[in-house]
Amino acid sequence: MRKNTLLLTGLLIAAPLFAQASCESLKNEISQKIIKNGVPENDFTLDIVPNDQADRAGGQVVGHCDNDTQKIVYKRNNSERGSSVPANAGTSQDSPAQ
Fold it and tell me: How many domains does the chain have?
């Protein structure tokens, strides 16, 4: 019984660390997709923000993580080239409805 309690406590403590790691890995995956679509690495940023701050982040939401409590926001650094994200840069859940 004591082992189960210790295991459960350990999992509860470690859960936020695993969630953040999954956000970072998804952010890196999306970044690689954008780069493969011809956008130079220095021309954009991806930020992980809480859902309630996504509208104020000043970019386009291209992914979500941490049980849908965080958004990954794309911002183009060079505004002269436009701010559109390559169509296949985010996840299928973030694609606009057609």
Answer: 1
Angstrom distance (rounded) from CA 49 to CA 39: 22
User: Within 10 A of 68 (CB to CB), how many other CB atoms are there?
Assistant: 9
Chain centroid offset of residue 61 CA? 8
Tens of pLDDT along the chain (98 residues) come to 676 665 556 556 655 655 555 899 999 999 999 999 999 999 999 999 999 998 888 899 999 998 889 999 999 987 554 445 666 666 555 554 44
Structure-block tokens of residue 38: 């011809």
Domain range for 74 is 2-94
Instruction: Please name the residue ranges forming H helices in 2-60.
Output: 2-36
**The CA-based dihedral angle spanning residues 85, 90, 93, 94, taken in that order and rounded to the nearest 10 degrees:** -30
